[in-house]
Amino acid sequence: MDSITAHQLTKRYDETLALDSLDLSIPDGSVYGFLGPNGAGKSTTMRLLTGLATPTSGEATVAGVPTTDRSQLIDHIGLLPEEPPIHDELTAREQLTYAAGLRELSEPQPRIQQLLDRVALAEDADTRIDTYSTGMRQKTAFLQAVLHEPDVLFLDEPTSGLDPRAARTIREFIDELSDGGTTIFLSTHILPVVDEHADTVGVLSDGKLVAEGAPAELKRRVDAESSDKSLEDVFLEVTETAPDEEL
Ligand SMILES: Nc1ncnc2c1ncn2[C@@H]1O[C@H](COP(=O)(O)OP(=O)(O)OP(=O)(O)O)[C@@H](O)[C@H]1O
């Protein structure tokens, strides 16, 4: 079965066509790497798929639930947005307890402790978030997204700005969740992360899906003659801009 489907999903903001007729079929338990230049429409897609924005036309389902039915949807999804909703004046444990309360999870403390241990945050769990490093904040936000064991996890730049150790912890956790059957929708500009983790990669450019396939398949498509093409080559080729548009 597909965990994420989209059919002609479109979002227009006044003059801007942020997402243009997106079709997706993402199987249960897979990792989908979502790439695209700045302004391509990736965040818009995430907002539509998580019910935070309504499409101008077209439709989508996540875990079998129409994305317009946000009250049903939220039990099934976890979201790590670019700017996570965490409160600086709380500690990580308080933040996670608060999130568990919003989701009405019963007896969440053993799960919270297990998650804090899992990402090596237990020692600092009772210190205020405003004293945390970027990595510690991001780990807190990540735990908040997975606390309720969602079927489908949406991650927007989960490892950007993190040092190698914190990034490794998050990446290993992503692998573990994927092995456990969680479907993962991963948007990032860090191409090696996508190369390593994604079963399928989709590349968005100007609101349109311009390439989709397994990483190895996309690399072959860019240049069948050469075996050392990277996802970066794929990205640059399929999102090519006119010279005067380049920075
Ligand atoms: N709320 C909004 N109102 C008006 N225009 C918007 C809104 N949100 C996004 N847009 C426009 O839609 C287009 C797609 O933006 P979006 O943020 O989805 O891109 P992105 O791929 O996530 O970019 P980035 O990699 O920089 O985060 C852009 O032209 C953006 O200016």
Describe this structure in words.
One of its GO terms (molecular function) is ATP hydrolysis activity. This is ABC transporter ATP-binding protein. It comes from Halosegnis longus. It is a single chain. This protein is of the alpha/beta class. It has 2 domains: 171 residues, Rossmann fold; 62 residues. The chain is 34% helix and 26% strand. The chain contains 9 helices and 10 strands. The strands form 2 sheets. It has a 6-stranded mixed β-sheet, sandwiched between helices. The mean pLDDT is 91. Adenosine-5'-triphosphate binds next to strand 2 and helix 1.
Task: State the gist of this model.
The chain is α/β, with parallel strands linked by helices and 247 residues long. The protein contains nine helices and ten strands.
